[in-house]
Amino acid sequence: xxxxxxxxxxxxxxxxxxxxxxxxxxxxxxxxxxxxxxxxxxxxxxxxxxxxxxxxxxxxxxxxxxxxxxxxxxxxxxxxxxxxxxxxxxxxxxxxxxxxxxxxxxxxxxxxxxxxxxxxxxxxxxx
Length: 127
Prior knowledge:
The chain has helices at residues 6-9, 12-31, 34-53, 57-87, 93-126. By secondary structure, it is mostly helical.
């Protein structure tokens, strides 16, 4: 186990190498969460579908980016929930508020992704 501030003293490629390791550990931790796993599996299907559906790189960026954004927000929400749970198991209105706001962020990102994909499908197949 390394010191909590060890990353602060690293420089150059050593810092990048360790940061990449921390990021991969975060993705592995996220994979243990059911919602993130479902979103990742959806991304495995939807990102290649975006290549086929998109007519321009901008359309691809919107389609794929909206899917990836949902995963990013889910990871952040999980981080918030984990930090709140680390503080303690007792109910507190501020803890509930933080968790609810994280959940709302996930909902908004999902609604945005659904809207983008719906508009792209309508444009492709109905216009």
